[in-house]
Design brief:
The protein is built from 13 helices and 15 strands. The structure holds 2-succinylbenzoate (OSB) and magnesium ion.
Length: 375
């Protein structure tokens, strides 16, 4: 089945979060989300969700930059490349430097389209090997320690297999101490989103090292692979890299330097499913556990995350959790739900395997643009 892409449709929707999500780099209360539809000559279509956030604080990308790059460069380059399979999209877009979230939104839509045309679930089309994935939750910074403990208690009662909390300087050891004294043996990790430095904060990280954490995620700046390697040599807790790894090359550099022992893979951050598979295959070959990270996705992005989490190597619970943790009403049907044992069943429907609620997307749309790929 050869693809003949006819057009790329972009929409921006606005979706309020049920409760604000706070990290070391800021607080999000509502999401502005770029939804991508890739439409084939046959009229069939695939969906992608660009995870670029509102502001350039997680990385350099934003909804607005992603919109510009997608409309002005990604779509036209794709048109000229006349890709016939989803696996060609990554190479076709290689001339565009960075802007991986923009590229991933379109790439993912083409993968969904191709899986639908092939008549099978995206997760199987990508090479997934399990029909159920393990789930954890990411809990943002809270106003008080009591509020944090309440959140942790609720998520554990829901069945989630791993708790991750956000930390930042001044809100770190005290939070971990409070959770550990209440829940001595749960699977617990922390995510600093690059808020620390090797020179200034080694003593804090050494203290965190005493709490039997599953991992410490992205303590230092994204470019600091060398400092992460030095830090990893100082502590027994595995370092997990998120922001630092945007490509297979980064994963290899991190492994060769000893900068981490675990990798968080995000579809948007690495530029799409093809790069996810390259990193995941490298990780399997070198015995590095990986897991799927999240970016406060609505249903389309969540569905793609479920699909990629079925690949070999995704052996740790991901930040892929129920729609209801984020949204009053999702943009897919049914919403993503999590079992009592903290798992999500990979869907059996074709492509992403969830129905996209077009009417709801229409109602939430604040901006739209269509780029035609054939003349
Ligand atoms: O670092 O994993 C991160 C959300 C926004 C930006 C960065 C991160 C996160 C999360 C939330 O941790 C994960 C989720 O979607 O539940
Ligand atoms: Mg992270």
């Amino acid at each position: 089945m050869r693809l003949q892409l006819e057009r790329i449709e972009l929409r921006e929707i606005e979706l309020p979060l049920k409760s604000p999500f706070e990290t070391s780099f800021g607080r999000t209360t509502r999401r502005r989300i770029l939804i991508v539809r890739a439409v084939d000559k046959t009229g069939d279509c695939g969906y992608g969700e660009c995870v670029a956030p509102e502001g350039p604080f997680y990385n350099h990308e934003t909804v607005d930059t992603a919109w510009l790059i997608t409309a002005k460069y990604v779509a036209p380059i794709l048109a000229r490349a006349r890709v016939e399979t989803a696996s060609e999209v990554n190479a076709a877009l290689a001339p565009i430097r960075g802007n991986r979230m923009a590229k991933a939104g379109v790439e993912a839509a083409v993968w969904d389209l191709e899986a639908k045309l092939a008549g099978r679930p995206l997760w199987q089309h990508l090479g997934g090997i399990r029909d159920e994935i393990a789930c954890g939750v990411s809990i943002g910074l809270q106003e008080t320690v009591e509020a944090l403990i309440d959140k942790v208690t609720n998520e554990l009662e829901s069945g989630y297999q791993r708790i991750k909390i956000k930390i930042k300087p001044g809100k770190d050891v005290q939070l971990v101490e409070a959770i550990r004294s209440r829940f001595p043996s749960i699977t617990l990790s922390v995510d600093a989103n690059s808020a620390y430095s090797l020179n200034g904060d080694l003593s804090v990280v050494r203290q965190l090292d005493q709490y039997n954490l599953l991992m410490i995620e992205q303590p230092l700046a994204p470019g600091d692979l060398v400092d992460h390697a030095k830090l990893q040599r100082e502590i027994k807790t595995p370092i997990c890299l998120d922001e630092s790894i945007v490509s297979l090359a980064d994963a290899r550099h991190a492994f060769e330097l000893g900068s981490c022992r675990i990798i968080n893979i995000k579809l948007g951050r690495v530029g799409g499913h093809t790069e996810v598979r390259l990193i995941q295959a490298y990780a399997v070959e070198h015995g590095i556990p990986v897991w799927c990270g999240g970016m406060l996705e609505a249903g389309i992005g969540r569905a793609h995350n479920i699909a990629l989490s079925t690949l070999p190597g995704f052996t740790l619970p991901g930040d892929v959790s129920a729609s209801a943790r984020y949204w009053e009403e999702d943009i897919i049907e049914p919403p993503v739900t999590v079992s009592r044992k903290g798992t999500i069943k990979a869907p059996t429907g074709h492509g992403i395997g969830y129905e996209v609620n077009e009417a709801r997307i229409e109602a939430l749309t604040v901006r739209r643009e269509t780029v035609h790929l054939t003349s």
